[in-house]
Amino acid sequence: MEKALNRRVFLKTSFLGVGTLIASLSPLKIFAHQQTNSTTNLPAIDTAQLYREARAHFYKKEYDLAESKYLQLIEALPPNLEYYDGYAKVLGAKQRMVEIAELYRLALNKYTDNPFFMHRLAVSLKKISRANNKAEKEFITTHGIPNLLSYSAELLLAAIAIKPVKGFMLELKDIPAVLASKNEQRLGNGLVPIELSRHLASAIEVQTDSVKQRWNETRKSRKPLLNTNTDADIKKLSDKKRRELPGYKDREQREYAMKKARKIRWEQALEKGIAENKPTAVDKYGLLILSENIADTQTIGRMRKFYRQNEHPERLISLNRFLFSRNDSASNALSLASSLIKYSKQKKVVEEAKQLLELVRPILDTMPPVCVGDFYTSLAEIDSINGKQADARKTLLAGIGKFDGKGGVAYTLIVRYVATYTGAGRIAAAEIMKALCQKEHKRNNDAVWEFVDKHVEQLKVKPIHNKEKEKYLIALSKFQKAISAAEFNTTMQEILEIKT
User: Fold this and answer.
1) Nearest C-alpha neighbor of 168 from the set 124, 116, 105, 228
2) Which of 257-266, 379-388, 475-484 has the lowest mean pLDDT?
3) What is the distance between the alpha carbons of residues 179 and 171, in angstroms, rounded to a whole number?
4) Measured between alpha carbons, how far is 450 from 453 in angstroms, rounded to an integer?
5) What pLDDT is recorded for position 23?
6) CATH of the domain at 35
7) Tens digits of per-residue pLDDT, 407-435?
8) What is the pLDDT of residue 71?
9) 64-106, pLDDT tens digit by residue?
10) Residue 130 burial class via C-beta count within 10 angstroms: exposed 0-12, middle 13-18, buried 19 and up
């Protein structure tokens, strides 16, 4: 059975006595040597000024100067935790993880009942165990500690016994989760898993019971827990006092971080608005996201989908108009024109849509196929609204020709072409749809048959999957419903068989 570690025994076997720190560290070794061997009175220094200088050097990434000043501060006022934490940040920036642990170990060796030094040492050892195998082996070899996580837990339990701070408890609650993750990695590498003693595991459970819910909310998942009041949270984020940054690059990074933080909160509010079917919230937070990045296609797509599914055409038009006003690109012009034609039949609006489509025409050949299809569909819809069905078919035929009748966009245009027929013409339209579904093939003199034949030939070479077959049959059934009840029922039976 694993022998329980005694914190005081461990601390008594200090590296200060055997010179481990002096042998392995550079600036810190001098400090450690001075602490154990020097009894001379130090000259008075302005610690507040020196601390400001040390911080300034750190934020300017002048780490050697910052390190020197922090060592002076620790030498002048050894019990000051703030100085140790500042120096630890410098060591962390220089990727000297073992030295951070040694720093707090040195402090705890001198102030053995300080719960904050216990906490800092525990956290530094936990970080080493979690993410730095090389540093972990070095520390274990040097100090003979077989299980850093067990020792971290003991330190935290001792700290909580002196000062029951919730932050200490949350760190302690982390240890079983870190251990589970580490053991998963060890098992994958063919190593024996590490275990906590039953007594230690039980003590962790008891001491962390009061923070269990908080830990589940803030630490169990990688997703951040955000304030439910998004506007108040954003205001708090904006109003927070921050130090002046010296460099342009640092200011740029801060601004990027602020934008990212705002976007995370706005996206959460947008997602909530969509889930709760609150169009006002979707408008507000979606447009706030787009105000900082007008090209955020994910947000645009989510808003458009929500407006379509929940039948808010006026909001969809407003969104597309906002996008076009901010960026008058051809794709935004096309989206606005399509929504105007589809959801507003007023003659004035149709005229506006026609002007927007003329802006798209010069670069139509450079646009994606789906946009080309949308262009011809919208243009044909204008002709249909004006009662010019023959002109609509002519426009759609030109669009179908762009794809030589092949592919999904061509199919959509053919279906739209067929839909322009009314009355007796719907019988001929149904025959075209039957041919597309690879049923009867009764050709007539309609110009679209040239492309229908090519589309069918493509389907024979490259068959479509069941989901696409279902889509084709549903389109056919819509034409059959008004023509032949028997044929409609047969098609619906086929759709049912595909679904099952």
Assistant:
1) 116
2) 475-484
3) 13
4) 6
5) 35
6) 1.25.40.10
7) 999 999 999 998 888 877 788 888 888 88
8) 92
9) 999 999 999 998 887 889 999 999 999 999 989 889 999 999 9
10) middle
Is residue 42 a contact partner of residue 76, using CB atoms and an 8 Å limit? yes
Q: Is 259 inside a domain boundary?
A: yes
Q: How is 52-84 classified by DSSP, letter by letter?
A: HHHHHHHHTT-HHHHHHHHHHHHHHSTT-HHHH
Tell me: do 195 and 154 sit in the same domain.
yes
Q: Is residue 348 part of a domain?
A: no
- For residues 385 and 346, the answer to whether their CB atoms sit within 8 Å is no
Domain extent, residue 102, equals 7-218
Residues 157 and 294 in one domain: no
Whether 65 is in a domain gets the answer: yes
User: Does residue 97 lie in a domain region?
Assistant: yes
State whether 67 and 160 are in the same domain: yes
Assigned token pair, 29: 């070794």
The tokens describing 469, both together, are 């077959």
Q: How far apart are CA 457 and CA 397, in angstroms?
A: 18
Residues 80 and 27 in one domain: yes
- Structure tokens, 116: 């904050």
Same domain, 98 and 205: yes
Whole-angstrom Cα distance, residue 335 to residue 271? Answer: 23
Who's near 466: CB < 8 A, 6+ residues apart?
498
Between CA 488 and CA 497 the distance in angstroms is 14
pTM of the model: 0.62
* Stated length of the chain: 500
Task: Based on the fold, state whether residues 182 and 76 are members of the same structural domain.
Answer: yes
Q: What is the number of domains present in the chain?
A: 2
Question: Residue 17: CB partners within 8 Å, gap ≥ 6?
Answer: none
Same domain? For 194 and 250 the reply is: no
Contact indicator for 373, 413 with CB cutoff of 8 Å: yes
* Tokens coding 320: 């597309």
Indicate whether 21 and 92 sit together in one domain.
yes
For residues 219 and 238, give the distance between their C-alpha atoms in angstroms, rounded to a whole number. Answer: 25
Reading the block at residue 49, the tokens are: 């000024």
Helices then strands, each counted (H, E), the chain: 28, 0
- Residue 351 to residues 318, 320, 379, 382, Cα–Cα distance (Å): 17, 17, 11, 9
Calpha distance 65→61 (Å, rounded): 9
Burial class (CB in 10 A: 0-12, 13-18, 19+), 1: exposed
| Sign of the C-alpha dihedral computed for residues 458, 463, 469 and 473 taken in this order | positive
Cα gap 270→262, rounded to integer Å: 12
